[in-house]
Amino acid sequence: MIDKKKFKWANLFLIAIFILLYAPIIYLIVYSFNEGGTMNAFTGFTTQHYNSVFEDTRLITIVINTIIIALLSAAIATVIGVLGALLIYYLRNKKLKERVLSLNNILLVMPDVMIGASFLILFTYLIPLPMGFWTVLLAHVAFNIPIVVLMVLPKIYSLNEQMILAAEDLGASDWQILNKIILPNIASGAFTGFFMALTYSLDDFAVTFFVTGSGFSTLSVEIYSRVRAGVSLEINALSTLMFIASLILVVIYYFVQMKEVKQAKRGKIYE
């Protein structure tokens, strides 16, 4: 039987954690509507700071750049990650498979500062490229690939091998097996990987800071630069819009996952 006192303290601890996490965000959102120019006192309600965001053509360009980088890097990383996960799954040498998986996991836990510095050295000395759009895109693709691999591999391991063997016995080609059996069954894992890669790319600062150039920037780098120059409620408004966009993505992802769970339950019932 669950101890009611322990259960109560657990709930209080959880509430305290959520307050610590969301109180600064709520504070930021509230003061994005502040008529005054500081966050010291709320003097009146206004949407002027949001108007300033939409009137800032440079900021709109940076938003578009950020979205393009996030979508492209997530899409490319998803394709490469799915192929990489399939390659790892079909490796016959167990030791080699373990080493490749270890290398993939190391990239996940490696500090962003080290990854950013490594790419800076790569694009400066080993493969000289002008810092800008392409260096940011390549860096984002690189750190997103291990995430996609990690999301797709469990789906591949949960595949029914009998279906693949049956398809081979019926004369199906490798492309048909991949297109008709494997890809439909791992699509949810690929979507999860794409979603995670998209959010990582949108939020990344450390790696992007190292590989961006003077003529190209993303939202995270731009916000950092503006905050260093001084507190502006325009940043609050921009951060609020980013928070709402992230929230919408999370809700969409939640409903997609719920749909997948329902389909999986139906499939078990009909088995």
What CATH first level would be assigned? Answer: Mainly Alpha
CA-based gyration radius: 23 Å
What number is the mean pLDDT?
A: 84
Strand content: under 5%
- Helical content stands at over 70%
In oligomeric terms, what are we looking at?
Answer: single chain
**Gap between N and C termini, in Å?**
36 Å
Helix/strand-derived category reads mainly alpha
Approximate shape:
globular
What would CATH call the architecture? Answer: Orthogonal Bundle
Regions with little confidence, pLDDT below 50 for 5+ residues: none
CATH topology: MetI-like fold
Q: How many β-strand runs?
A: 0
Following the backbone from N to C, one meets helices and strands in this order, namely HHHHHHHHHHH
* H/I helix tally: 11
Main sheet characteristics: none
Number of domains: 1
Q: CATH superfamily assignment?
A: MetI-like
